[in-house]
Amino acid sequence: MGGSRRSVRRHGKGFRVADFRATCVALAFAAMLVPSLLPVDGQIDVRVGVYHNPPKVAIDSDGRVSGLYPELVESIAAAEGWEIEYIRGSWTESLERLDRGEIDLMVDVAYTVPRQALYAFNEETVLVNWGTVYVRAGLKLLSLPDLEGLRIAVMRGSTHTDDPGGIRDLVQRFGIRCTFIDLDDYTEVFQALASGDADAGVVNRVFGLTFEAEYGVERTPIVFNPIELRFALPPDGPLTSLLIDRIDYRLAELKADPESVYYRTLEENLLEGPGTETVFRWPAWVLPGMSSAGALIAILAVATLLIRREARHRAKAEEAYRRSEERFALAMRGANDGLWDWNLTTGEVYYSPRWMAMLGYNEIAPTIEAFRRLLHPEDRDRVLAVEASYLEGQVDRYQVEFRIRHRSGTYVDILSRGFLVRDDEGRPLRVVGTHVDISEQKLAAQQLKEAKERAEAADRIKSAFLATMSHELRTPLNSIIGFTGILLQKLPGPLTEEQAKQLGMVQTSARHLLDLINDVLDISKIEAGQLEVVFEPFDLRDMLANAVGAARPLAESKGLELRVDIAESVSEITSDRRRLSQILTNLLSNAIKFTESGYVHVRCTDDGESIVLSVEDTGIGIGEPDLAELFTPFRQVDSGLTRKYEGTGLGLSICKRLAEKLGGRIDVVSRPGQGTTFSVRIPKGDQA
Predict the structure, then answer these.
(1) DSSP string, 448-478
(2) 163, 266, 306, 683: which one has the fewest Cβ atoms less than 10 Å from its Cβ?
């Protein structure tokens, strides 16, 4: 989208020669300080990226830009003598332009840790905002788990969508399964809710409070992710340093003046709703009366009108203030947060009713010491250290968790966040913030922790038991296999045909049981994190030859062709020879077992960084439903009462876990009746 140029000039009320001389001197001095930043004619052109996000930023059908941010930008530009060029686009387009340095300034950007690494931000916060969940009419939601299974409309790229603490992060942490619908802006989010194309939607609280009635959507008590809104700039932009310095200076100046455009535009864009103007009509007898009564009556009438107008304006201002207070109170109640406001000059602190109610109080002394006395003795020094670091500018955010004493004598877990307000000289004036009761989350965390410790303890016991039992079982099984082998070799004496048959069955069963025990022990060690791999250089060609040689007799006994192709570049790698051989042996065994005719083909290639082992067969193949469960322990393609092929169902699961332990992965491609190909990709390791 193209941008159009809009000039903003400062017009004074009066002008004198002395003023002109002083101005010239000041401009000459400024030009000497920053000559590289000013064009030849002294005019600074600022390209400002804007996107439609009313009431903070609005772009009408004719391309006109209005709202809170444009008014602030134009006020600052007028004071500084800048010329503004608005570059219109979507949120995503504006961010991309900021990345490419095609704009000098972008409005209405959340100040977050991920974005701090990408962009430069001014220091003064324009507005504090947070995310709110809305639902289509008739749907009731009370908490995050209620989002299970719903379609959630979100604005792509928003901090409330994708950043840590955003809705995607929250549903993932709570294990909530839902479907996200990515849209270009918040207007489309509300449109999706109104049309029924989405069940829930996430917008910022300013947009929600402004347009919820228009779209007939319902606000839920789910609020999250409080953030500071600022201006974003390209880190290496030619105007970045100058713009940050002047914007922060002007914002601080505007915030210090209760009558400034900053507070006026806040009221007009965020607090006032649509209304009607009262039209006064003179009664028929007034004009003749005024004409005959003369100037005195005229003066009295005008005075009366002025008084009435002033009364109306005052009532309107009081109503706007009342509505803003009500909205703020409702927002804080919905967020379940307590508010505190610490005046650093006087030492007084305002504690909101919700703040006090969290601790069981109706009233508390308005001092910082009242808060500090309630801190848990073990947390007090840490909280004071965080507070001091923030006030001294050593950290850029105030956020700390602590325990604070309830009136009942118990302790409440609190998450406190705050931001600093400075004067024109940069000195701290106030710290304003919130308290959130996180006792339930802390309790739950101590419990999503004790349960984990119990599970890990049980797992350790299980692993120890399996290791012991495996040892105890393998010893007699090896004896059984060994002695039956001696008998089958007829070393002690001749055997009848039936005796040989029965001993062969005993030996086969014993070997099968030994394989099962070894597989169970391996999978248990893997799941407990106790399986160790040893990375050493070894000849891969030699390992492949041994594994294929061991499998060849079994393939030939079934009349299968065993093909082998090894690339010439395959030589020495650094990995765990035993575990890689175990993977290949298992895959070869499976391929031969599930193939009745045709061939089994082993390939090995080298792509420079990794080696790729593949085992292809012409066997029974695997259907699509079974592929999803293929690597699940104790799952087999051939299962049930009529199963034809023996096995533990652990082999492929072990192969997958071993491949991952070696830093690689295993993939499978298969079609029923046409065969299967398993591919294992393993890093070659350090060859130095």
Answers:
(1) --HHHHHHHHHHHHHHHHHHHHHHHHHHHHH
(2) 306
How much is the average pLDDT of 452-468?
A: 73
CA-closest candidate to residue 590, choices 562, 617, 556, 630? 617
Cβ proximity of 414 and 402 under 8 Å:
yes
How do residues 94-104 score in pLDDT, each as one tens digit? 999 999 999 99
Q: Determine phi and psi for 500, rounding to 5 degrees.
A: -65, -40
Q: Is the pLDDT of residue 24 over 70?
A: no
C-beta neighbour count of 348 within 10 angstroms: 13
pTM > 0.70: yes or no? no
> Are 184 and 161 a contacting pair, CB within 8 Å?
no
DSSP class of residue 269 equals I
Rounded distance between C-alpha atoms, residue 155 and residue 198, angstroms: 13
Nearest to 442 by CA among 387, 386, 402: 402
86: tokens are 């608005």
Burial class (CB within 10 angstroms; exposed 0-12, middle 13-18, buried 19+) of 119: buried
Q: CA nearest 179: which of 196, 164, 195, 199?
A: 199
Under the banding of pLDDT at 50, 70 and 90, the label for residue 279 is: very low
Say if strands 151-155 and 200-204 run parallel, antiparallel, or are unpaired. parallel
Element (H, E) at 688: none
* HEC string for 370-435: HHHHHECHHHHHHHHHHHHHHHCCCCCCEEEEEEEECCCCCEEEEEEEEEEEECCCCCEEEEEEEE
pLDDT digits (tens, 9 = 90+) for 616-669: 999 999 888 778 778 776 555 554 333 455 555 677 888 898 999 999 999 999
Residues 6+ apart with CB under 8 A from 542: none
Q: Amino acid letter at 250?
A: R
Q: Are 134 and 213 in contact (CB under 8 A)?
A: no
